[in-house]
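Hi Y.,

Following your request, here is the sequence exactly as I used it, all 86 residues.
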Amino acid sequence: MGPETEKTGDVKAPANLHYRHRSSAEIIRHAVALYYVLSLGLRDVDFLLAERRSIISYETIRRWCRKLGQSFANSLRRHRPWTGDK
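Below is the corresponding structure, written out as tokens. Let me know if you'd prefer a different format.
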């Protein structure tokens, strides 16, 4: 059994989405957020991360967005305020 899944009884826990990535989860979340929330291009996100001294290619950011984009969008929807909230 690998570290990507944990077995509890008969039900497997979901795999860690950031497993086997060289960058930290914080940098990955930041890159995906820049791409989706601010509607920046992949090379723009690459440039902004390079200013923070994180050398990551735009192809890596593209792969992260394909892999983690849906889970990121789901978490944003969960935290969206209701229409009647003040």
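The chain is about 50% helix and 5% strand.

Thanks again,
Q.
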